[in-house]
Amino acid sequence: MRKYICIGILVLMLASIAGCSEETAAISQNSITVAKDQSLSVTLVEEFQESYYDETELINMVNSEVTAYNTAAGKDCITVGDHLLENGQMHLTLEFVACTDFCSYMPEDLFVGTVQEAYDKGYDFNRSLESVGSNGATIGKNDLLSMGNSKIVVLTGAMVVRCPSKITYYSQGMELLDSNTVRATTEGCYFIIYK
Predict the structure, then answer these.
(1) pLDDT of the residue at 27
(2) Under 8 Å between Cβ of 24 and 160
(3) How far is CA 80 from CA 16, 61, 112, 118, in A?
(4) Which of 101, 161, 173, 179 has the largest CB neighbor count within 10 A?
């Protein structure tokens, strides 16, 4: 169930526009919004300009696959939200009850929890993170390990990530868009620490 045709269509042509404004970045690149209860709202933004693409067929396929996923899970884990086809781009929102459902349904890996839980899951902590508001200061593995109860998002993929509260550290290779939002423009594994 991990790889779905509709998700393949939606993620084939990820729109990563490096030189755009914050507002444009939020609407032209796939994004994840993490809620305080760790549920997720994911907006997929993809080019949808080929003459053989059919909006109704795609949405019906997504609804069918989400229904099948929820039936297999025995509960409603994923909800199909709004969709909009505008200027050759399809915007589709999916709501996930938990990170585990996102990982089962989407091609990217995602973890939301504490730093200690991320470490226990085996994520590689040999990395440098930018400190927000510290003019280029960074922290490394030992600093991360001392933040056991701090909240973390670990993401593979190029996405915009909105956290439920202020971001304090984020991986190099990401851009801070506002106090709660960062953007990764290339594929990789990214850490985001928030309050």
Answers:
(1) 56
(2) no
(3) 23, 11, 21, 28
(4) 161
Say if residue 8 is in the same domain as residue 77: yes
Residue 187: which domain range? 108-195
Distance (Å) of CA 183 to CA 101, 190, 192: 22, 10, 10
- CA angle, residues 144, 145, 149, in degrees to nearest 5: 90
pLDDT for 6? 44
- The confidence score (pLDDT) of residue 13 equals 31
Q: Which residues of the chain have pLDDT under 70?
A: 1-27
Round to whole Å and give the CA distance between 125 and 145.
Answer: 8
As a residue count, the chain comes to 195
The count of domains in the chain is 2
